[in-house]
Specification:
mainly alpha, Helix Hairpins, 0% strand
Length: 187
């Protein structure tokens, strides 16, 4: 690269600075893109877990309703057949087992509800992180565009100065003094 000892601008320094900043922003942009992709993958996983929890919740509700219906019918049969002691005892044992199963289903249902709420909270947090990441990416893109424009402007200035220097080197000595004054006045 040609440099002019009389030129007071530091184009090479400016160019190096813009190149360094561009490298840093590109590295940050790549990191944010990877994080965003990982967040999207985690979001899909949580959505699948959420769907499975909802499906299991529906199954448990159905089974719970069936058990309650069965218990109610069993209670009716018990009250109708009060004369048969053995039948009542078997039925009571079966009823106790069914009550225990209902309690187990109830506990499972409550556990699923709690997990569902936790998944919803995690899903909201991931969506918020995703939104923040997208905003950061947009901001980074804008900054990179600004740096590219600055780089192009600096490059154009450099090319102009180099062409002026070449033109000046071909001029006579007295003309050089005139053009040097002109360049100083532009700065």
């Amino acid at each position: 690269m040609e440099t002019c000892s009389k030129c007071k601008c530091n184009l090479q320094v400016k160019l190096n600075e813009v190149t360094r900043i561009n490298y840093i922003w590109q590295k940050d942009y790549t990191t944010v893109s990877v994080e965003m992709n990982n967040t999207k993958i985690r979001l899909r996983e949580l959505e699948k877990q959420f769907e499975v929890a909802n499906s299991l919740n529906a199954v448990l509700r159905t089974e719970n309703l069936e058990m309650r219906t069965y218990i109610e019918r069993s209670n009716e049969k018990l009250s109708n057949n009060s004369s048969n002691k053995e039948y009542q005892n078997n039925f009571k044992d079966e009823l106790e087992i069914l009550k225990q199963q209902v309690n187990i289903y109830k506990e499972d249902f409550e556990k699923e509800q709690k997990e569902k709420i936790e998944l919803e909270v995690k899903l909201k947090a991931i969506k918020k992180d995703l939104t923040t990441s997208l905003k950061t990416i947009d901001k980074t893109k804008e900054e990179i565009d600004g740096l590219r424009k600055n780089y192009q402007r600096t490059r154009s200035e450099k090319e102009y100065i180099l062409s002026e220097l070449k033109r000046l080197s071909s001029c006579r000595l007295e003309d050089k003094t005139f053009f040097q004054k002109e360049l100083v006045e532009r700065d």
